[in-house]
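Reply to dn_fold:

You asked what the input looked like. This is it:
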Amino acid sequence: MARVAVAMSGGVDSSVAAALMAEAGHDVVGFTMNLWPDWVPPADDGPGCCGLGAIDDARAVARTLGIRHYVLNLRDVFERAVIREFAGEYARGRTPNPCIACNRAIKFALLLDKIRALGMERLATGHYARVEPAPGGGVRLLRAVDRRKDQSYVLAGVPPAQLAQVVFPVGAYTKPEIRAIARRYGLGVAEKPDSQEICFVPGGDHGAVVARYAPQAVRPGPIYDGEGRQVGAHHGVARYTVGQRRGLGAAGGRPRYVVAIDTERNALRVGDGAALRCQELIAADANWIAVTGLREELAVTARIRHGGTDVPAVIEPAAGNRVRVRFLEPPRAAAPGQAIAFYQGDVVVGGAVIDEVRSGDAHAVDR
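and this is what came back:
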């Protein structure tokens, strides 16, 4: 049996991951990452994955399971690699996913390095996904059995070399089954609700976080329509995302949505729903898992946001070591900065970050 480190967030999924690893006979040690910024009110524990209450929950689960448990203070690196990057991306008019940044910089990089240095052989987490040996060698990443909870989208950027060192024990179960296992073990988190918010964004106000690091991105400015007419005013470009309708206050009888963010002019451009349909896009920072690289056209399905639906697409190499994605069924509201994951059935082909978008509006090209 192996020495397995479990990233314990204090939630039911990672707690059951620890229980399953211990039940399988492994030497299990729990690690909870203290990522909670000092400027977030300590009383705002909630159901989140990084609050002070989460540390207490993880510690209690470890006691119940009879495993060792340690807390790692990673606040400084989390602030640099995730929070500041999050604010910087919004300030550049992009739409980042901080969970993906955390996976890339913290969970499957820094944490993995730390537990290996301590002599641990594998890292287990509570992600809903599956990793298994690939037919030709190496590993492949697959969707979870529970499609409603599947988190393969946020894992598509994890390099294969790191995936080879991790285990996703809950990926073979449905959420109700995970809660049932937690009750069987007598874990106090069995009924704990899932976290719905970004751990460092109290109340869901991401604009307040951006204002702390990039105040220039929350200055008021104009809203223009597709013909260049000013139709309203915004409260700071960082407070908006492509596809947003609420809070625009733009004049006009028909519904209007944010279709482009112009940070140079501190302006938003709005249009109708048709302008949000993405015909094709260019993605960068590709991470290939099921293939060694992209050398020719490949038919896939693609997902542009967690919880979204897959749409058929064709991907092909593009200049600058990027990927061109042509959609056969154009998705709505693709935005620079978002991650995109590519699938063939349950297998994750790879992932990338959206860099340029060509929507139904010929003018809507973002860089």
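The mean pLDDT is 91.
Hope that clears it up.
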